[in-house]
Amino acid sequence: MTHSIVALAGETLWLLASKAIYWPARKTLIVADIHFGKATAFRSLGVPVPHGTTTENLQALQQLIEAYPCEEIVFLGDFLHARAAHAPATLAAMQRWRARHPALRLCLVRGNHDLHAGDPPASLGIAMLDEPHRMGPFALCHHPDLETEGYVLAGHVHPVFHLRAARETLRLPCFLLGPQRAILPAFGAFTGGHALKPLPDEQVYVTADSAVFRVPGQGPDTAQCLIPSIKNQS
Fold it and tell me: N or C terminus of the chain: which is more exposed, having fewer CB within 10 Å?
């Protein structure tokens, strides 16, 4: 199953196996924590990490807009990882991708890494926004613990869930859905994850390869209680 359909705040959203949300009524993709240039930033510090993560991230975006009718992409923070992400090769690859989609609206809700990295170049044509950004019934944020009106869609935490079967354990990116907010997994190819223990109110949808599915026994069919604050600096 390449996506799971959920109802949040009166809207139908698709949780995608590719770790993004598709909002069909708005033809909008919602992506959290892509962290362009993270590998470049590590290499600038002398840490040997793989090349090609920017290309991988762009290819993942390309696959999404080819698979789903899309007029807008909203990035929920941490678009650029650090100032080193402004490296010419990284920006050139992003610029080439952007030139293929001049009519596509791009919006970035600034996250903590964006404050340090600085805004992406104006030539990328990205509308810069501060959290919370209201869009229909949703408050689009980077930080999930922001107190605001509207149902919060956020990132920042890079949530993963441990699936256990007998003696085997799988650590998989996941969506956490609650009564007042949903937390998206990190979209980026080189982002890591933070293992969280879901509360009784939270529904968990894990992603694995080309599948996304709800974890049985995690959360009620309709969450009814408040979720405590989650703190993590990714």
Answer: N
**Residue 86 or 146, more confident:** 146
What is the average pLDDT across 139-168?
87
Cα–Cα distance measured from residue 177 to residue 28, given in angstroms and rounded to the nearest whole number: 19
Q: Which has the higher per-residue pLDDT, 72 or 145?
A: 72
For residues 184 and 229, the answer to whether their CB atoms sit within 8 Å is no
Structure-block tokens of residue 194: 């933070």
Report residue 166's pLDDT band, with 50, 70 and 90 as the boundaries.
low
CB crowding 101-138: b at 16 or more within 10 Å, else e: eeebebbbbbbebbeebeebeeebebeebebbbebeeb
CB 134 within 8 A of CB 150: yes
> Is there a contact between 232 and 144 (Cβ–Cβ < 8 Å)?
no
Q: Could you tell me which residues are beta bridge partners of residue 143?
A: none
Phi, psi of 54 (to 5 degrees): -65, -45
